[in-house]
Design goal:
The protein has about 325 residues and is of the alpha+beta class. The protein folds into two domains: about 100 residues, Arc Repressor Mutant, subunit A (Orthogonal Bundle), CATH 1.10.10.10; about 150 residues, Gcn5-related N-acetyltransferase (GNAT) (Aminopeptidase), CATH 3.40.630.30. It has a seven-stranded mixed β-sheet with strand order 4-5-6-7-8-10-9. Strands 1-3-2 form a three-stranded antiparallel β-sheet. Helix 4 crosses helix 5 and helix 9 packs antiparallel against helix 10. The longest helix is centred in the middle third of the chain and has 26 residues. The protein is elongated and about 85 Å long.
Length: about 325
Protein backbone atom coordinates (compact mmCIF):
# COMPACT_ATOMS: atom_id res chain seq x y z
CA UNK A 1 0.00 0.00 0.00
CA UNK A 2 1.48 3.35 -1.02
CA UNK A 3 1.14 6.61 0.87
CA UNK A 4 -1.93 7.86 -1.00
CA UNK A 5 -3.75 4.53 -0.63
CA UNK A 6 -3.06 4.58 3.09
CA UNK A 7 -3.97 8.20 3.86
CA UNK A 8 -6.70 8.61 1.25
CA UNK A 9 -8.45 12.02 0.94
CA UNK A 10 -6.54 13.16 4.02
CA UNK A 11 -3.64 13.72 1.62
CA UNK A 12 -5.72 15.65 -0.92
CA UNK A 13 -3.26 18.55 -1.11
CA UNK A 14 -0.28 16.23 -1.50
CA UNK A 15 -2.06 14.25 -4.23
CA UNK A 16 -2.88 17.43 -6.14
CA UNK A 17 0.75 18.56 -5.86
CA UNK A 18 1.86 15.15 -7.15
CA UNK A 19 -0.41 15.45 -10.18
CA UNK A 20 0.71 19.05 -10.72
CA UNK A 21 4.37 18.00 -10.63
CA UNK A 22 3.67 15.16 -13.06
CA UNK A 23 1.81 17.38 -15.54
CA UNK A 24 4.34 20.21 -15.21
CA UNK A 25 7.20 17.83 -15.97
CA UNK A 26 5.43 16.55 -19.07
CA UNK A 27 4.39 20.09 -20.04
CA UNK A 28 8.07 21.06 -20.22
CA UNK A 29 8.52 18.32 -22.80
CA UNK A 30 5.51 19.64 -24.74
CA UNK A 31 7.06 23.12 -24.91
CA UNK A 32 10.16 21.43 -26.32
CA UNK A 33 8.10 19.90 -29.13
CA UNK A 34 7.13 23.37 -30.28
CA UNK A 35 10.51 24.96 -29.55
CA UNK A 36 8.79 27.44 -27.23
CA UNK A 37 11.40 28.60 -24.77
CA UNK A 38 9.27 29.54 -21.76
CA UNK A 39 8.68 27.94 -18.39
CA UNK A 40 5.27 26.26 -17.89
CA UNK A 41 4.62 28.40 -14.81
CA UNK A 42 4.98 31.54 -16.95
CA UNK A 43 2.16 30.45 -19.26
CA UNK A 44 -0.87 32.05 -17.52
CA UNK A 45 0.84 35.44 -17.32
CA UNK A 46 2.27 35.35 -20.85
CA UNK A 47 -1.04 34.15 -22.32
CA UNK A 48 -2.97 36.92 -20.54
CA UNK A 49 -0.53 39.63 -21.66
CA UNK A 50 -0.67 38.36 -25.26
CA UNK A 51 -4.44 37.94 -25.45
CA UNK A 52 -5.36 41.03 -23.42
CA UNK A 53 -2.48 43.54 -23.78
CA UNK A 54 -1.77 46.66 -21.74
CA UNK A 55 -3.01 45.28 -18.43
CA UNK A 56 -1.30 46.08 -15.19
CA UNK A 57 -0.06 43.43 -12.78
CA UNK A 58 -3.09 43.65 -10.50
CA UNK A 59 -5.48 42.98 -13.39
CA UNK A 60 -3.40 40.03 -14.56
CA UNK A 61 -3.32 38.58 -11.04
CA UNK A 62 -7.09 38.89 -10.71
CA UNK A 63 -7.68 37.33 -14.11
CA UNK A 64 -5.54 34.23 -13.49
CA UNK A 65 -6.27 33.83 -9.78
CA UNK A 66 -2.74 34.34 -8.50
CA UNK A 67 -1.27 36.78 -6.00
CA UNK A 68 0.08 40.15 -7.04
CA UNK A 69 3.52 39.15 -5.72
CA UNK A 70 3.58 35.90 -7.73
CA UNK A 71 2.60 37.67 -10.95
CA UNK A 72 5.18 40.42 -10.35
CA UNK A 73 7.89 37.79 -10.03
CA UNK A 74 6.88 36.08 -13.27
CA UNK A 75 6.73 39.44 -15.09
CA UNK A 76 10.29 40.19 -13.94
CA UNK A 77 11.47 36.86 -15.35
CA UNK A 78 9.65 37.46 -18.64
CA UNK A 79 11.29 40.89 -18.86
CA UNK A 80 14.74 39.34 -18.29
CA UNK A 81 14.09 36.91 -21.14
CA UNK A 82 13.01 39.74 -23.45
CA UNK A 83 9.42 38.49 -23.85
CA UNK A 84 7.52 41.38 -22.25
CA UNK A 85 8.12 45.01 -21.37
CA UNK A 86 6.74 47.14 -18.55
CA UNK A 87 5.82 50.76 -19.22
CA UNK A 88 3.80 53.52 -17.61
CA UNK A 89 0.18 53.46 -18.69
CA UNK A 90 -1.07 56.19 -21.04
CA UNK A 91 -4.31 56.69 -19.10
CA UNK A 92 -2.96 56.25 -15.58
CA UNK A 93 0.71 57.18 -15.22
CA UNK A 94 0.76 55.72 -11.70
CA UNK A 95 0.28 52.19 -13.05
CA UNK A 96 2.70 50.17 -15.13
CA UNK A 97 1.25 48.08 -17.93
CA UNK A 98 2.72 44.90 -19.34
CA UNK A 99 3.00 44.28 -23.10
CA UNK A 100 4.71 41.80 -25.42
CA UNK A 101 8.05 42.70 -26.97
CA UNK A 102 8.80 41.87 -30.60
CA UNK A 103 10.38 38.64 -29.42
CA UNK A 104 7.28 37.78 -27.40
CA UNK A 105 4.95 38.68 -30.25
CA UNK A 106 6.89 36.35 -32.57
CA UNK A 107 6.39 33.53 -30.08
CA UNK A 108 2.65 34.10 -29.67
CA UNK A 109 1.32 32.37 -32.88
CA UNK A 110 3.36 29.24 -32.12
CA UNK A 111 2.09 29.20 -28.53
CA UNK A 112 -1.51 29.60 -29.72
CA UNK A 113 -1.14 26.50 -31.91
CA UNK A 114 0.42 24.65 -29.00
CA UNK A 115 -2.54 25.59 -26.77
CA UNK A 116 -5.00 24.32 -29.37
CA UNK A 117 -3.18 20.99 -29.65
CA UNK A 118 -2.82 20.62 -25.87
CA UNK A 119 -6.54 21.32 -25.37
CA UNK A 120 -7.44 18.59 -27.87
CA UNK A 121 -5.05 16.14 -26.24
CA UNK A 122 -6.35 17.02 -22.76
CA UNK A 123 -9.96 16.53 -23.83
CA UNK A 124 -9.02 13.11 -25.14
CA UNK A 125 -7.26 12.36 -21.84
CA UNK A 126 -10.31 13.40 -19.83
CA UNK A 127 -12.54 11.20 -22.00
CA UNK A 128 -10.49 8.20 -20.90
CA UNK A 129 -11.37 8.78 -17.25
CA UNK A 130 -14.59 7.83 -15.49
CA UNK A 131 -14.70 11.17 -13.67
CA UNK A 132 -14.01 14.38 -15.57
CA UNK A 133 -11.23 15.99 -13.53
CA UNK A 134 -11.73 19.42 -15.08
CA UNK A 135 -15.41 19.55 -14.07
CA UNK A 136 -14.58 18.08 -10.67
CA UNK A 137 -12.00 20.84 -10.09
CA UNK A 138 -14.59 23.48 -10.95
CA UNK A 139 -16.98 21.94 -8.44
CA UNK A 140 -14.28 21.74 -5.77
CA UNK A 141 -13.21 25.36 -6.29
CA UNK A 142 -16.82 26.45 -5.87
CA UNK A 143 -17.28 24.32 -2.74
CA UNK A 144 -14.08 25.76 -1.22
CA UNK A 145 -15.23 29.29 -2.01
CA UNK A 146 -18.36 28.59 0.02
CA UNK A 147 -16.50 27.02 2.96
CA UNK A 148 -12.74 26.72 3.24
CA UNK A 149 -10.99 23.45 3.97
CA UNK A 150 -9.71 25.03 7.19
CA UNK A 151 -13.21 25.75 8.47
CA UNK A 152 -14.37 22.26 7.46
CA UNK A 153 -11.51 20.63 9.38
CA UNK A 154 -12.11 22.93 12.36
CA UNK A 155 -15.79 21.98 12.50
CA UNK A 156 -14.91 18.29 12.60
CA UNK A 157 -12.14 18.90 15.15
CA UNK A 158 -14.45 20.98 17.35
CA UNK A 159 -17.20 18.35 17.20
CA UNK A 160 -14.74 15.65 18.23
CA UNK A 161 -13.29 17.75 21.03
CA UNK A 162 -16.77 18.81 22.08
CA UNK A 163 -17.76 15.19 22.62
CA UNK A 164 -14.78 14.82 24.97
CA UNK A 165 -15.48 17.97 27.00
CA UNK A 166 -17.48 17.62 30.21
CA UNK A 167 -19.24 20.66 31.61
CA UNK A 168 -19.31 20.30 35.41
CA UNK A 169 -21.05 22.13 38.22
CA UNK A 170 -18.75 23.80 40.72
CA UNK A 171 -17.47 21.88 43.72
CA UNK A 172 -15.08 23.18 46.42
CA UNK A 173 -12.28 20.99 45.07
CA UNK A 174 -12.23 23.15 41.91
CA UNK A 175 -11.69 26.50 43.66
CA UNK A 176 -7.96 26.58 42.85
CA UNK A 177 -8.68 25.87 39.14
CA UNK A 178 -11.41 28.51 39.09
CA UNK A 179 -9.04 31.12 40.46
CA UNK A 180 -5.98 30.14 38.41
CA UNK A 181 -7.83 30.20 35.09
CA UNK A 182 -9.19 33.69 35.75
CA UNK A 183 -6.04 35.17 37.25
CA UNK A 184 -4.06 33.81 34.28
CA UNK A 185 -5.97 35.76 31.65
CA UNK A 186 -6.50 38.90 33.74
CA UNK A 187 -2.77 39.16 34.49
CA UNK A 188 -1.99 38.70 30.80
CA UNK A 189 -3.97 41.76 29.73
CA UNK A 190 -4.78 43.86 32.81
CA UNK A 191 -4.30 43.57 36.55
CA UNK A 192 -6.19 41.57 39.18
CA UNK A 193 -8.45 43.85 41.19
CA UNK A 194 -9.90 43.53 44.69
CA UNK A 195 -13.34 42.77 43.24
CA UNK A 196 -11.80 39.84 41.36
CA UNK A 197 -10.23 38.30 44.44
CA UNK A 198 -13.44 38.38 46.47
CA UNK A 199 -15.20 36.10 44.01
CA UNK A 200 -12.15 34.01 43.07
CA UNK A 201 -11.05 33.32 46.65
CA UNK A 202 -14.57 32.84 48.02
CA UNK A 203 -16.82 31.66 45.16
CA UNK A 204 -19.32 29.96 47.47
CA UNK A 205 -19.94 33.16 49.44
CA UNK A 206 -19.84 35.71 46.62
CA UNK A 207 -21.43 33.65 43.79
CA UNK A 208 -23.21 30.44 44.80
CA UNK A 209 -24.80 31.54 48.09
CA UNK A 210 -26.11 34.66 46.35
CA UNK A 211 -28.04 32.57 43.81
CA UNK A 212 -25.35 32.23 41.17
CA UNK A 213 -23.81 29.29 39.33
CA UNK A 214 -20.30 28.25 38.31
CA UNK A 215 -19.52 25.95 35.39
CA UNK A 216 -16.23 24.21 34.66
CA UNK A 217 -14.99 22.43 31.55
CA UNK A 218 -12.97 19.26 31.93
CA UNK A 219 -10.98 17.99 28.96
CA UNK A 220 -8.50 15.13 29.04
CA UNK A 221 -8.85 14.92 32.84
CA UNK A 222 -7.95 18.60 33.35
CA UNK A 223 -10.08 21.61 34.23
CA UNK A 224 -9.42 23.88 31.26
CA UNK A 225 -12.23 26.41 31.37
CA UNK A 226 -14.80 28.09 33.55
CA UNK A 227 -17.56 30.68 33.62
CA UNK A 228 -20.16 31.86 36.10
CA UNK A 229 -23.66 33.28 36.30
CA UNK A 230 -24.01 36.05 38.89
CA UNK A 231 -27.50 36.93 40.10
CA UNK A 232 -28.17 40.66 39.76
CA UNK A 233 -30.55 42.78 41.82
CA UNK A 234 -33.14 43.02 39.04
CA UNK A 235 -33.37 39.23 38.73
CA UNK A 236 -31.25 39.01 35.59
CA UNK A 237 -27.87 37.29 35.52
CA UNK A 238 -24.40 38.39 34.57
CA UNK A 239 -22.20 36.04 32.55
CA UNK A 240 -18.82 36.46 34.22
CA UNK A 241 -15.51 34.82 35.10
CA UNK A 242 -15.23 33.33 31.61
CA UNK A 243 -11.76 31.84 31.16
CA UNK A 244 -10.17 29.10 29.07
CA UNK A 245 -6.64 27.82 29.51
CA UNK A 246 -4.28 28.99 26.72
CA UNK A 247 -3.42 25.33 26.08
CA UNK A 248 -7.08 24.60 25.31
CA UNK A 249 -8.05 27.71 23.39
CA UNK A 250 -9.34 27.33 19.85
CA UNK A 251 -11.12 24.07 20.70
CA UNK A 252 -14.61 25.54 21.11
CA UNK A 253 -14.54 25.17 24.90
CA UNK A 254 -15.59 28.77 25.53
CA UNK A 255 -18.62 28.18 23.31
CA UNK A 256 -19.56 25.05 25.26
CA UNK A 257 -19.35 26.93 28.55
CA UNK A 258 -21.34 29.88 27.23
CA UNK A 259 -24.03 27.58 25.87
CA UNK A 260 -24.24 25.75 29.21
CA UNK A 261 -24.69 29.05 31.05
CA UNK A 262 -27.37 30.24 28.63
CA UNK A 263 -29.18 26.91 28.89
CA UNK A 264 -29.23 27.25 32.68
CA UNK A 265 -30.61 30.79 32.40
CA UNK A 266 -33.38 29.55 30.11
CA UNK A 267 -34.28 26.80 32.58
CA UNK A 268 -34.59 29.46 35.25
CA UNK A 269 -36.83 31.58 33.05
CA UNK A 270 -34.33 34.43 33.04
CA UNK A 271 -35.24 37.28 30.66
CA UNK A 272 -31.83 38.90 30.29
CA UNK A 273 -28.16 37.99 30.47
CA UNK A 274 -25.56 40.72 30.83
CA UNK A 275 -21.77 40.80 30.64
CA UNK A 276 -18.84 43.18 30.88
CA UNK A 277 -15.67 42.98 28.81
CA UNK A 278 -12.97 45.00 27.11
CA UNK A 279 -12.64 45.79 23.42
CA UNK A 280 -9.02 44.63 23.56
CA UNK A 281 -10.29 41.05 23.97
CA UNK A 282 -11.24 40.47 20.34
CA UNK A 283 -11.63 36.65 20.48
CA UNK A 284 -13.84 36.94 23.57
CA UNK A 285 -16.07 39.53 21.91
CA UNK A 286 -16.37 37.33 18.83
CA UNK A 287 -17.48 34.47 21.08
CA UNK A 288 -20.07 36.63 22.79
CA UNK A 289 -21.46 37.74 19.44
CA UNK A 290 -21.76 34.11 18.35
CA UNK A 291 -23.66 33.40 21.56
CA UNK A 292 -26.08 36.20 20.68
CA UNK A 293 -24.88 39.05 22.92
CA UNK A 294 -25.06 42.60 21.62
CA UNK A 295 -23.60 45.87 22.88
CA UNK A 296 -25.71 47.84 25.33
CA UNK A 297 -25.44 51.11 27.23
CA UNK A 298 -28.14 50.17 29.73
CA UNK A 299 -25.80 48.65 32.32
CA UNK A 300 -24.79 50.16 35.62
CA UNK A 301 -21.24 51.51 36.05
CA UNK A 302 -18.81 48.60 36.34
CA UNK A 303 -16.74 47.99 39.47
CA UNK A 304 -13.85 46.92 37.23
CA UNK A 305 -11.35 49.36 35.73
CA UNK A 306 -10.81 47.12 32.70
CA UNK A 307 -14.46 47.18 31.59
CA UNK A 308 -15.13 49.41 28.59
CA UNK A 309 -17.97 47.52 26.90
CA UNK A 310 -21.23 46.07 28.20
CA UNK A 311 -23.31 43.50 26.32
CA UNK A 312 -26.66 41.79 26.81
CA UNK A 313 -28.63 38.83 25.54
CA UNK A 314 -32.42 39.01 25.74
CA UNK A 315 -33.84 35.52 26.22
CA UNK A 316 -37.53 36.41 26.19
CA UNK A 317 -39.70 39.42 25.30
CA UNK A 318 -40.02 42.15 27.88
Amino acid sequence: MNFFDEVGPGALGSRLRHITDLITSQASQVYGLYHVDIEPRWFPVFYTVASAPDRHVGEIAERIGQTHAAVSQVVKELVRHGLVSVQRGEVDQRRSVVALTEQGAALWPVLQQQVTDVREASEALLSETRHNLWLALEEMEYALSQQSLTSRVKAIRDARVGSQVEVLAYEPQYQADFKQLNVEWIDRYFRVEAADLKALDHPEEYILQRGGYIFLARYQDRIVGTCALLLLEDGSFELAKMAVSPAAQGLGIGMRLGEAAIAQARRLGVRRLYLESNTKLTPALQLYHKLGFRKTVAGQPSPYERCNIQMELLLSPQ
